[in-house]
Amino acid sequence: MKIAVIGVGNVGGVIAPRWAQAGHEISLGVRDPQADKVRAVIEACGGRAQATSVGEAAAGAEVVVLATPFPATRDAVAACGDLAGKTVIDCTNPLTADLRGLSVGFDDSGAEQVAAWAAGASVVKALSITGAGNMADPAYADGAASMFICGDDDAAKAVAGELCGAFGFDIVDCGPLSSARLLEPLALLWISLAYKWGNGADIAFRLMRR
Amino acid sequence: MKIAVIGVGNVGGVIAPRWAQAGHEISLGVRDPQADKVRAVIEACGGRAQATSVGEAAAGAEVVVLATPFPATRDAVAACGDLAGKTVIDCTNPLTADLRGLSVGFDDSGAEQVAAWAAGASVVKALSITGAGNMADPAYADGAASMFICGDDDAAKAVAGELCGAFGFDIVDCGPLSSARLLEPLALLWISLAYKWGNGADIAFRLMRR
Question: What is the pTM of this model?
Answer without folding.
Answer: 0.87
